[in-house]
Amino acid sequence: MIGRQIWRRGPAAFPRGLRPRFEAGEASIVMPLIPFSPQEQLLDLPGHPPHKPFGGGEGSRSWPVLGTDHSGVDVLSQLLYGFRVSFFFAIVVAFAGYTIGIAVGATMGYFGGWTDIVLQRGIEIWASIPFLYTIIILASVMKPNFWLLVLLLVVLRAWIHITYTIRGEFYREKARDYVQAARAIGLKDRAIMLRHILPNSLVPVVTYLPFEIVAYINVLVSLDYLGFGLPPEVPSWGRLLLQGAETITAHPHLVTFPVIALAVTLFCVVMIGEAVREAFDPRVYARLR
Q1: Residue 162: beta bridge partners?
Q2: How far is 219 from 111, CA to CA, in rounded Å?
Q3: Which of 31, 53, 248, 275 could bond 66 through an S-S bridge, CB–CB 3.0 to 4.6 Å?
């Protein structure tokens, strides 16, 4: 019976050879470990939401392990989908911001002079724009979404910090002998910057990237907590924290589990980043053994 229903919903999604089995009802489905959607309201559970965690044995094999929120939505599914949204947000912002920051910092550090001075003054003026106030003003006139928040964070602040770091690295590397040799054989500035100086200036990028990802996850959680983040239909750790803060004495699980998930995620990201940094550290191979 399940196979027939699925076949009627989307026959184009299945190979032709499986059509007889689905029409005969012989197909089976492996259900996911968490059968609840982050938008599904579990209103058929006994009692009233929010339900407490670890409530199994009350007549339902699929009882939410970590309970539900005020709308009756499973907390565990919100944590998992919220991790996907937060981590993807941080990755997109970090890589986009680093791309812009590396390009601007490389230009400042390699050419120097008036190019460096003018860009520095422009960056100082741009960095003085308050990010949170800008988000609040824009959120009051338009509905913020994922890509709008990414754009605002990248444009307003994600590229500024790495710009100064890359600028210093290019200032140091352009005085090396290999750069002078590259100029002597007639290489253009673009080739020198991309093929020679940039690969030797990426150590701070690898070092700071995990901490930037952690910071952007915190930024998204904070914006969602304040009500200026993602739309309500998008699963969010910040929105769970907001619900838990309002009823922390009666339903502490709405605060406890998001905080644990956030702490574990940030710890794992930092540890993975530290391992990557050690793998790319040239000083390890420069020691005398």
Answers
A1: none
A2: 34
A3: 53
Extract the tokens encoding 227: 């009500």
3-state helix, strand, coil in the chain (%, to 5): 70, 0, 30
Is 67 exposed, middle or buried, given 0-12, 13-18 or 19+ CB atoms closer than 10 A? Answer: buried
Which CATH number is 76-281's, of 3.10.180.10, 3.40.50.10800, 2.60.40.10, 1.10.3720.10? 1.10.3720.10
Q: Which of these, 261, 274, 227, 257, lies nearest to 65 by C-alpha position?
A: 257
Q: What is the pLDDT of residues 90-146, one digit of tens each?
A: 999 999 999 999 999 999 988 888 988 999 999 999 988 888 788 888 877 888 888
Backbone angles phi, psi at 74, to 5 degrees: -60, 130
Which sequence spans correspond to the domains of the chain?
76-281
Give me the sign of the Cα torsion angle 134, 85, 146, 208.
positive
The tokens describing 137, both together, are 């003003």
**What is the C-alpha separation between 146 and 19, in angstroms, rounded?**
39
Residue 9 pLDDT more than 50? no
Q: Measure CA of the first residue to CA of the last residue in the chain; give whole Å.
A: 69
Is the separation of the CB atoms in 262 and 217 below 8 Å?
yes
